[in-house]
What we know:
By secondary structure, this protein is an alpha+beta fold. It has helices at residues 17-30, 48-55, 58-80, 97-102, 107-122, 126-136, 140-146, 167-191, 218-242, and strands at 85-95, 147-150, 157-164, 201-206, 212-215.
Amino acid sequence: MLRRRPTYTSPPSGRTGTAELDLREEHEASAGRRPEPPVAPATYGPSPVQALLRRLPGRFIALALALAIIAGGVGALLVELGTRVYQTQASLMVDQPLLLAADTGPATIDKLGAVRLKYADLVETQPIASAVAHQVGMSPAAVASSLFANAPQGSLLLNVGARSTSPAIAVRLTRAASSALIAYANAEQDTYKVPTYERIVLSQMVPAPAATRVSPENRRAAEVGVAAAVIAFLVVAFAAFVTRPVPIQA
Protein backbone atom coordinates (compact mmCIF):
# COMPACT_ATOMS: atom_id res chain seq x y z
CA MET A 1 0.00 0.00 0.00
CA LEU A 2 1.33 3.42 -0.88
CA ARG A 3 1.77 5.80 2.01
CA ARG A 4 0.39 9.19 1.38
CA ARG A 5 2.88 11.93 1.95
CA PRO A 6 1.60 14.66 4.27
CA THR A 7 0.86 17.92 2.69
CA TYR A 8 1.11 21.33 4.21
CA THR A 9 -0.70 24.43 3.47
CA SER A 10 0.34 27.90 4.32
CA PRO A 11 -1.29 29.23 7.44
CA PRO A 12 -4.03 31.73 7.13
CA SER A 13 -3.07 35.33 7.25
CA GLY A 14 -4.34 35.61 10.78
CA ARG A 15 -1.69 33.21 12.25
CA THR A 16 1.35 34.65 13.92
CA GLY A 17 5.05 34.04 13.33
CA THR A 18 5.07 31.59 16.26
CA ALA A 19 2.61 29.32 14.46
CA GLU A 20 4.78 29.34 11.36
CA LEU A 21 7.78 28.34 13.49
CA ASP A 22 5.77 25.45 15.01
CA LEU A 23 4.80 24.18 11.53
CA ARG A 24 8.44 24.38 10.40
CA GLU A 25 9.57 22.36 13.43
CA GLU A 26 6.87 19.74 12.81
CA HIS A 27 7.95 19.47 9.17
CA GLU A 28 11.61 19.03 10.17
CA ALA A 29 10.66 16.43 12.76
CA SER A 30 8.61 14.44 10.22
CA ALA A 31 11.53 14.58 7.80
CA GLY A 32 13.87 13.04 10.43
CA ARG A 33 15.91 16.21 11.15
CA ARG A 34 16.46 17.66 14.58
CA PRO A 35 15.55 21.33 14.77
CA GLU A 36 18.52 23.60 15.39
CA PRO A 37 18.45 25.39 18.73
CA PRO A 38 18.17 29.16 18.55
CA VAL A 39 21.47 31.05 18.81
CA ALA A 40 21.72 33.10 21.96
CA PRO A 41 22.92 36.68 21.49
CA ALA A 42 26.50 37.41 22.59
CA THR A 43 26.84 38.91 26.04
CA TYR A 44 29.82 40.79 27.47
CA GLY A 45 30.71 40.82 31.13
CA PRO A 46 32.83 43.31 33.06
CA SER A 47 36.59 43.34 32.67
CA PRO A 48 38.75 41.87 35.48
CA VAL A 49 39.55 45.35 36.76
CA GLN A 50 35.88 46.34 36.74
CA ALA A 51 34.94 43.11 38.50
CA LEU A 52 37.60 43.73 41.16
CA LEU A 53 36.46 47.30 41.78
CA ARG A 54 32.80 46.22 41.99
CA ARG A 55 33.59 43.65 44.65
CA LEU A 56 35.60 46.04 46.79
CA PRO A 57 33.81 48.28 49.26
CA GLY A 58 34.10 51.98 48.64
CA ARG A 59 36.17 52.56 51.79
CA PHE A 60 38.87 50.18 50.57
CA ILE A 61 39.11 51.99 47.25
CA ALA A 62 39.41 55.32 49.05
CA LEU A 63 42.08 53.85 51.34
CA ALA A 64 44.01 52.46 48.37
CA LEU A 65 43.93 55.82 46.60
CA ALA A 66 45.07 57.66 49.73
CA LEU A 67 47.96 55.28 50.34
CA ALA A 68 48.92 55.45 46.66
CA ILE A 69 49.15 59.24 46.84
CA ILE A 70 51.23 59.06 50.01
CA ALA A 71 53.55 56.40 48.57
CA GLY A 72 54.01 58.39 45.37
CA GLY A 73 54.91 61.52 47.30
CA VAL A 74 57.33 59.66 49.57
CA GLY A 75 59.00 57.97 46.58
CA ALA A 76 59.49 61.26 44.76
CA LEU A 77 60.74 62.92 47.96
CA LEU A 78 63.32 60.18 48.56
CA VAL A 79 64.70 60.66 45.06
CA GLU A 80 64.86 64.43 45.56
CA LEU A 81 66.63 63.98 48.90
CA GLY A 82 69.18 61.58 47.38
CA THR A 83 72.76 62.48 46.52
CA ARG A 84 72.79 65.55 44.31
CA VAL A 85 75.47 66.00 41.67
CA TYR A 86 76.45 69.39 40.24
CA GLN A 87 78.42 70.08 37.07
CA THR A 88 80.14 72.95 35.31
CA GLN A 89 82.67 73.33 32.51
CA ALA A 90 85.01 75.87 30.95
CA SER A 91 85.96 76.23 27.27
CA LEU A 92 89.60 76.55 26.15
CA MET A 93 90.83 77.54 22.70
CA VAL A 94 93.56 75.35 21.20
CA ASP A 95 95.35 77.61 18.73
CA GLN A 96 98.56 77.97 16.77
CA PRO A 97 98.09 81.59 15.74
CA LEU A 98 101.24 82.28 13.71
CA LEU A 99 101.09 79.11 11.62
CA LEU A 100 97.32 79.29 11.29
CA ALA A 101 97.52 82.83 9.95
CA ALA A 102 100.09 81.83 7.31
CA ASP A 103 98.52 78.48 6.39
CA THR A 104 96.37 78.45 3.23
CA GLY A 105 95.22 74.83 3.60
CA PRO A 106 93.59 72.61 6.24
CA ALA A 107 96.85 71.10 7.53
CA THR A 108 97.18 73.27 10.62
CA ILE A 109 93.50 72.97 11.56
CA ASP A 110 93.63 69.19 11.21
CA LYS A 111 96.73 69.08 13.42
CA LEU A 112 95.06 71.23 16.08
CA GLY A 113 92.06 68.91 16.04
CA ALA A 114 94.33 66.00 16.91
CA VAL A 115 96.08 68.08 19.59
CA ARG A 116 92.71 68.83 21.22
CA LEU A 117 92.05 65.12 21.61
CA LYS A 118 95.46 64.66 23.18
CA TYR A 119 94.83 67.32 25.82
CA ALA A 120 91.29 66.08 26.44
CA ASP A 121 92.69 62.64 27.28
CA LEU A 122 95.26 64.19 29.64
CA VAL A 123 92.69 65.89 31.90
CA GLU A 124 91.91 62.72 33.91
CA THR A 125 95.53 61.50 34.09
CA GLN A 126 97.98 61.72 36.98
CA PRO A 127 99.91 64.88 35.92
CA ILE A 128 96.79 67.06 35.71
CA ALA A 129 94.97 65.39 38.62
CA SER A 130 97.98 65.83 40.93
CA ALA A 131 98.32 69.51 40.06
CA VAL A 132 94.60 70.11 40.66
CA ALA A 133 94.63 68.11 43.90
CA HIS A 134 97.44 70.31 45.20
CA GLN A 135 95.38 73.44 44.53
CA VAL A 136 92.03 72.28 45.97
CA GLY A 137 93.29 70.05 48.79
CA MET A 138 91.83 66.76 47.56
CA SER A 139 93.35 63.40 46.73
CA PRO A 140 94.48 62.85 43.11
CA ALA A 141 92.13 59.86 42.80
CA ALA A 142 89.10 61.90 43.89
CA VAL A 143 90.08 64.68 41.51
CA ALA A 144 90.56 62.33 38.56
CA SER A 145 87.12 60.76 39.12
CA SER A 146 85.49 64.21 39.17
CA LEU A 147 87.10 65.74 36.05
CA PHE A 148 86.01 65.29 32.44
CA ALA A 149 86.86 66.82 29.06
CA ASN A 150 85.54 66.70 25.51
CA ALA A 151 86.43 68.19 22.15
CA PRO A 152 83.38 69.32 20.13
CA GLN A 153 83.55 68.55 16.44
CA GLY A 154 83.94 71.38 13.96
CA SER A 155 85.70 73.79 16.31
CA LEU A 156 89.03 74.43 18.03
CA LEU A 157 87.46 74.49 21.51
CA LEU A 158 88.28 72.09 24.32
CA ASN A 159 85.77 71.77 27.16
CA VAL A 160 87.11 71.00 30.63
CA GLY A 161 84.68 70.37 33.48
CA ALA A 162 84.02 68.71 36.82
CA ARG A 163 81.19 67.02 38.73
CA SER A 164 80.77 67.12 42.49
CA THR A 165 78.17 66.89 45.23
CA SER A 166 79.07 70.51 46.03
CA PRO A 167 78.49 73.20 43.39
CA ALA A 168 81.36 75.30 44.81
CA ILE A 169 83.82 72.40 44.60
CA ALA A 170 82.76 71.66 41.00
CA VAL A 171 83.62 75.24 40.04
CA ARG A 172 86.97 75.12 41.89
CA LEU A 173 87.93 71.84 40.24
CA THR A 174 87.07 73.16 36.78
CA ARG A 175 89.05 76.36 37.20
CA ALA A 176 92.04 74.50 38.63
CA ALA A 177 91.95 71.90 35.84
CA SER A 178 91.86 74.61 33.17
CA SER A 179 94.87 76.36 34.69
CA ALA A 180 96.74 73.07 35.13
CA LEU A 181 96.15 72.05 31.52
CA ILE A 182 97.38 75.41 30.19
CA ALA A 183 100.49 75.19 32.40
CA TYR A 184 101.14 71.61 31.26
CA ALA A 185 101.00 72.59 27.58
CA ASN A 186 103.40 75.48 28.10
CA ALA A 187 105.82 73.38 30.17
CA GLU A 188 105.81 70.59 27.60
CA GLN A 189 106.71 72.97 24.77
CA ASP A 190 109.38 74.60 26.93
CA THR A 191 110.91 71.19 27.53
CA TYR A 192 111.11 70.47 23.81
CA LYS A 193 112.19 74.05 23.01
CA VAL A 194 109.40 74.61 20.48
CA PRO A 195 110.00 77.84 18.50
CA THR A 196 107.65 80.71 19.19
CA TYR A 197 105.98 80.65 15.75
CA GLU A 198 105.25 76.91 16.14
CA ARG A 199 103.95 77.00 19.71
CA ILE A 200 100.46 75.82 20.49
CA VAL A 201 98.55 78.26 22.67
CA LEU A 202 95.81 77.20 25.08
CA SER A 203 93.72 80.12 26.27
CA GLN A 204 90.54 80.27 28.28
CA MET A 205 87.62 81.45 26.18
CA VAL A 206 84.66 80.78 28.53
CA PRO A 207 85.34 80.54 32.28
CA ALA A 208 83.48 78.08 34.44
CA PRO A 209 80.03 79.41 35.38
CA ALA A 210 78.05 78.47 38.48
CA ALA A 211 77.47 74.72 38.67
CA THR A 212 74.02 73.33 37.93
CA ARG A 213 72.39 70.15 39.22
CA VAL A 214 72.55 67.23 36.80
CA SER A 215 71.35 64.44 39.11
CA PRO A 216 68.81 63.39 40.20
CA GLU A 217 66.63 64.64 37.38
CA ASN A 218 63.09 65.88 38.00
CA ARG A 219 61.81 63.31 35.51
CA ARG A 220 63.37 60.52 37.56
CA ALA A 221 61.59 61.71 40.70
CA ALA A 222 58.27 61.80 38.84
CA GLU A 223 58.77 58.28 37.46
CA VAL A 224 59.58 56.85 40.90
CA GLY A 225 56.58 58.61 42.44
CA VAL A 226 54.14 57.26 39.85
CA ALA A 227 55.55 53.74 40.15
CA ALA A 228 55.27 53.80 43.94
CA ALA A 229 51.68 55.05 43.74
CA VAL A 230 50.60 52.33 41.32
CA ILE A 231 52.25 49.57 43.36
CA ALA A 232 50.70 50.81 46.60
CA PHE A 233 47.22 50.96 45.06
CA LEU A 234 47.47 47.44 43.63
CA VAL A 235 48.77 45.96 46.88
CA VAL A 236 46.01 47.50 49.00
CA ALA A 237 43.32 46.61 46.47
CA PHE A 238 44.51 43.01 46.24
CA ALA A 239 44.72 42.68 50.03
CA ALA A 240 41.19 44.03 50.39
CA PHE A 241 39.94 41.66 47.70
CA VAL A 242 41.39 38.48 49.18
CA THR A 243 40.32 39.35 52.74
CA ARG A 244 36.76 40.44 51.87
CA PRO A 245 33.97 38.54 53.67
CA VAL A 246 32.37 35.79 51.58
CA PRO A 247 28.70 34.84 52.23
CA ILE A 248 28.18 31.27 53.38
CA GLN A 249 25.59 29.36 51.43
CA ALA A 250 23.26 27.17 53.48
